[in-house]
Design goal:
18% of the residues lie in helices and 22% in strands. It contains 9 helices and 15 strands. Strand 12, helix 5 and strand 13 form a beta-alpha-beta unit. Bound molecules: NADP nicotinamide-adenine-dinucleotide phosphate.
Length: 416
């Protein structure tokens, strides 16, 4: 067991700027607003952070899990951290009386923190561990300093041409460069060029849309689902740097890739495991990867049940609508929630979860069921409310089930 730290020593929480992909997940997750950012880095304010660890499991890269032992009076300031290109090295602790390294604390610095003793427990909506039978994921094999080079072998639109949703299916091939991935993982793309401050663009994160053996099995390739961003969150015209770069790529262009990322949003690997997949728009990417993994194994007869709730504005804006409809009905139970179809009232995925309460309940009762939610941030609470309603209306206790789903790595969220 680690000895308690002397009061003048701080186990300072830092973010590794070389691995961080600036996805904002940590800043959104931190319950006490200890994380902030400028145009360069995401950083942790040592005066606010209480070591509650809430930000650690959701970080897709693990860049958040860095700690240094420092004297409180000499903690790295927010301003100092904004200027970093890399983390400072480990330094022996110099006590203010000049006595040298504090006994028993200097070697702790590289270890993940166990959380500050007084930090409040933070309840995440989903699990912070993968399902027990998930395969081992590789992470951070390629970084900003050592990206892998991939070649574009396919780029085509998967929504109707006359709609506003310009969503592309992009296939990248790695040739002889090893790039092992699992369904549910993501990669980072480094767009070329510089930002307004003249600094190279940071990586943008995209979930894999293909299964572990590739979009085309055996060719060391993978696919992404990318929506061209043409407006900001307020609806004002804005050109997304990386999405436009990717959607405009031509065959044989090369792309710098980092990652892979993610070690929890992974599918179970045991026979008869059921998947409940809930997504909106391009959040369908990991669901396509998992579904395709199962489809390629239909003959084995080991798949459990697959139930999909998929939300989009209209059928014409729903990525992969054609191929999805061709899947056998006894293989996957498909439920489409269309929010802007003139011929029917607005429906969200959570409405369909309530409509299908009996079947949802049946799946929830099976300990072999894993649930995946991916897409818009706003759906997170809506989906949790819908699942809770289904359980409570059946006279069961949602709090107990929710805790079990989290503890057993069976409920996963990836929302932006
Ligand atoms: P979108 O077209 O804006 O929305 C998809 C559907 O979700 C629409 O029908 C929308 O309805 C509905 N919706 C809006 N608010 C909702 C809520 N609170 N609950 C449930 N449904 C709601 O979706 P998108 O632009 O494709 O965005 C998908 C999200 O997935 C993005 O945030 C993206 O960052 C994220 N994502 C992408 C990837 C990837 O690899 N590309 C991976 C993971 C996550 P209305 O708009 O009609 O209200």
């Amino acid at each position: 067991m680690n000895a308690p730290l002397p009061p003048e020593v701080l186990k300072q929480h830092l973010i590794d700027p070389e691995i961080c992909i600036r996805c904002n997940t940590c800043e959104e997750t931190c319950p006490i607003d200890a994380i902030t950012h400028d145009g360069n880095n995401y950083v942790v304010d040592p005066d606010i952070c209480n070591g509650c660890m809430a930000c650690v499991p959701p970080c897709p890269t693990g860049s958040i899990d860095n700690w240094r032992l420092v004297l409180r009076a000499e903690a790295y300031s927010v301003q100092e951290q904004f200027g970093w290109d890399e983390l400072p090295g480990e330094k022996p602790l110099q006590q203010s009386d000049g006595a040298g390294a504090a006994d028993g604390v200097a070697t702790e610095a590289a270890m993940p923190a166990a959380g500050a003793p007084d930090a409040p427990a933070v309840q995440l909506p989903g699990a912070s561990i993968p399902p027990w039978s998930a395969a081992h994921p590789y992470v951070n094999l390629y970084t900003h300093k050592t990206p892998a080079l991939a070649t574009v072998v396919g780029n085509y639109r998967v929504t109707d041409a006359d709609t506003d949703s310009d969503i592309h299916h992009i296939v990248l091939e790695f040739g002889s460069v090893p790039f092992p991935v699992l369904e549910g993982q993501s990669i980072g793309i480094l767009p070329p060029g510089t930002d307004a401050q003249g600094r190279p663009h940071h990586a943008r994160q995209y979930s894999l849309a293909s299964p572990r053996d590739g979009e085309r099995a055996g060719y060391n390739n993978l696919s992404l689902t990318v929506k061209r961003v043409t407006e900001d969150h307020q609806g004002q015209p804005a050109r997304g740097v990386c999405s436009n770069y990717l959607c405009d790529l031509a065959k044989n262009d090369t792309v710098q890739v980092i990652g892979p990322f993610g070690n929890t949003f992974l599918m179970p690997n045991h026979a008869r495991a059921n998947l409940m997949m809930i997504c909106t728009g391009t959040g369908s990417a990991p669901m396509r990867a998992m579904t395709e993994r199962c489809r390629r194994r239909i003959e084995r007869g080991t798949n459990g049940r697959l139930m999909l709730f998929f939300g989009a504005r209209t059928q014409r804006e729903l990525p992969y609508f054609g191929p999805l409809m061709k899947l056998p009905r006894d293989f996957i139970d498909i439920n489409l929630a269309l929010s802007r179809d003139a011929s029917q009232p607005r429906r969200y995925v959570q409405d369909l979860i309530r409509e299908r309460a009996a079947d949802v309940l049946d799946l929830l009762a099976d300990p072999n069921t894993c649930i995946y939610v991916c897409g818009l941030k706003g759906m997170e609470s809506g989906v949790l409310d819908a699942l809770r309603d289904v359980v409570v209306q059946a006279g069961q206790d949602w709090t107990i089930l929710h805790a079990a789903l989290r503890r057993e790595g069976r409920l996963h969220f990836e929302t932006y």
